[in-house]
């Protein structure tokens, strides 16, 4: 597996990277800035390292960052509709976005001297709310939805024959209560960072320059990662209070990552080689019902102990999940327990990489919290991995009494950008250098 894009150098120290936003406005000790930024932003869960606000995650690489790179604490996810019919305009935006993303993930303004440099009589080309903040491990990950390729039977941008066969809308699952206004989209961008303001700043600036070419269809803020994607991370908890991500695929598991996450160029469409597929599900958690449920039932539903995260009948979090273990009253892990039905042992060996976030979006007007899990999965083939897994859960999961799927989307996530490539250049052709040449 190639390098997972990770770097612990701060943006200020990186050679040839230009000046970071924070360095521009005066250097303060990193620890001070990190503590201040986290406190001001009301961070709810502790990051794994003290320096996680200053850290830069390398933008360029064989794979996009934000997939197997360590999951950050906050997320802003956005889905766009493309509003132009012009392929050239779309490609120009993807090129512009790539340059902005490379800058912002390095802790720089969206454009050089963007917030103040254009003077008093022009709108700034950086909105400014991240001026004093570090990179905060910002990652920006782009994906293309099925409707970008073909919509209402129309080949919108001359790429219909490049649509991978597995990139189709997900089937309706039993119990789905999907809101079309929170589903689908032509393009998605997943922004993750250890400070919410950094993630929101990135999405806002990308949406701002997209005006006239794309329009925001829906977006979701998330806090408190609900998975670990690296063995260096502790397992966080979801809003049911359970450790979530214990048995997730970890970046260090090269064989599993190659088998279940990265698309092989020979799979179908060569332009997707080194990419992945992203499945997003907005899952409401019926918190009030859950909170009236006794601990024994909560643990039976999940199949793990709430305190330690250990499989029922075991002692420690990472003890083996033994689905054959039995007690005096039957299987220790119930037949409809979530972890049993979602396990590779029950699903013919299938696995996915989970990278979701908790959300709370106020209340629903009926006295309930609008809270839940913004579930994100990365997989090599959504039809052979996510779909059968979700079909099994939708039919039999004991957890269904306490959750409702209300949003859904699937996107093809192209490989990473290397050299003068741009987001989507393997799909559309061309390079940043060619564009610069043409503009001369
Ligand atoms: C289709 C895939 C999955 C959906 C949707 C899903 C929703 C969901 N999960 C939890 C809480 C937990 N899930 C856990 C494990 C787990 N979940 C999935 C898949 C989906 N979950 C998998 C593949 C696994 C691993 C199964 C295994 O091999 O053991 C756990 C246990 C801890 C862990 O291993 O991560 C919890 C807790 C919620 C609350 C939820 C929807 C709101
Ligand atoms: Fe789960």
TrEMBL record:
Catalytic activity: heme b + 2 H(+) = protoporphyrin IX + Fe(2+)
Co-factor binding comment: Binds 1 heme b (iron(II)-protoporphyrin IX) group non-covalently per subunit.
PROSITE patterns linked to this entry: DYP_PEROXIDASE, TAT
Task performed by this protein: Involved in the recovery of exogenous heme iron. Extracts iron from heme while preserving the protoporphyrin ring intact.
Organism of provenance: Rhodococcus olei
A Pfam family it matches: Dyp_perox_N
Protein name according to UniProt: Deferrochelatase
Named cofactor requirement(s): heme b
Localization terms from the record: Cell envelope
Enzyme kind, highest EC tier: oxidoreductase
NCBIfam families: Dyp_perox_fam, tat_substr_1
Family the entry assigns: Belongs to the DyP-type peroxidase family.
Residue ranges occupied by any Dyp-type peroxidase N-terminal domain in the UniProt entry: 64-223
Assigned keywords, A-Z: Heme, Iron, Lyase, Metal-binding, Oxidoreductase, Peroxidase, Signal
Catalytic activity, EC: 1.11.1.-
Annotated Dyp-type peroxidase C-terminal domain residues: 235-417
InterPro entries: Dimeric_a/b-barrel, Dyp_perox_C, Dyp_perox_N, Dyp_peroxidase, EfeB/EfeN, TAT_signal
